[in-house]
Amino acid sequence: MDRLIELLPELNQAFFETLYMVGISLGIAIFVGLPLGILLYVTDRGLFLENRFVKVAAGIVTNLVRSIPFIILLVFLLPVTDALLGTTIGPTAAAVPLSVAAIPFFARIVETSAREIDQGVIEAAVSVGASPWMIIKDVILPEAKPGIISGVTITTISLIGFSAMAGTVGGGGIGDLAIRYGYYRYDDLIMYTTVIILIVLVQVIQYAGDFIARVVNKR
């Protein structure tokens, strides 16, 4: 127990580093992935912005990034991270590959959520002359909101797992602490503590996400 108290400042720092890198990458994933997911949906066959070239090109890029295991993507993007930030160490640097991994992941969830919308609702909006922007803003996004919120929850939990992997290359956070103390120094107490922290964090996020999704679900 004394050992745990001694490392409490580092545990506290690692926890907030994890929240920091996950928060940045989640924000970027939503900012880029949400419009990308909507684009993948509305350019599909039979939709009001059907465009085969855009659909195929966006789908290929999305699937290409998603097909790369995160640990490989992490190493592959080290030169890009270094060029952007001047370093490959720390939670800010780790947020770069985390964001790249999260964008296509979240985009596909958004696309899937949009596909669950009753097509009759969209066809009715088109028939009354609603513009594409109005259909997206007033029909697709409100109808897909529960699925999108669930997608944010899933993406957040995935990012927590990815952030732990980022610790293996000096990304900071709980994963880094577990590797440095729990693995390299054979400190089982730190290893178990970091695992418990991650489990509790994931459970809280999952519960909160499910609750919000239920509240906004008007179906």
TrEMBL record:
<feature type="transmembrane region" description="Helical">
    <location>
        <begin position="54"/>
        <end position="78"/>
    </location>
</feature>
<keyword id="KW-0812">Transmembrane</keyword>
<dbReference type="InterPro" id="IPR051322">
    <property type="entry name" value="AA_ABC_Transporter_Permease"/>
</dbReference>
<feature type="transmembrane region" description="Helical">
    <location>
        <begin position="20"/>
        <end position="42"/>
    </location>
</feature>
<dbReference type="InterPro" id="IPR035906">
    <property type="entry name" value="MetI-like_sf"/>
</dbReference>
<dbReference type="InterPro" id="IPR000515">
    <property type="entry name" value="MetI-like"/>
</dbReference>
<keyword id="KW-0813">Transport</keyword>
<keyword id="KW-1133">Transmembrane helix</keyword>
<protein>
    <submittedName>
        <fullName>Methionine ABC transporter permease</fullName>
    </submittedName>
</protein>
<feature type="transmembrane region" description="Helical">
    <location>
        <begin position="189"/>
        <end position="209"/>
    </location>
</feature>
<keyword id="KW-1003">Cell membrane</keyword>
<feature type="transmembrane region" description="Helical">
    <location>
        <begin position="147"/>
        <end position="169"/>
    </location>
</feature>
<feature type="domain" description="ABC transmembrane type-1">
    <location>
        <begin position="15"/>
        <end position="207"/>
    </location>
</feature>
<feature type="transmembrane region" description="Helical">
    <location>
        <begin position="84"/>
        <end position="107"/>
    </location>
</feature>
<keyword id="KW-0472">Membrane</keyword>
<dbReference type="Pfam" id="PF00528">
    <property type="entry name" value="BPD_transp_1"/>
</dbReference>
<comment type="similarity">
    <text>Belongs to the binding-protein-dependent transport system permease family.</text>
</comment>
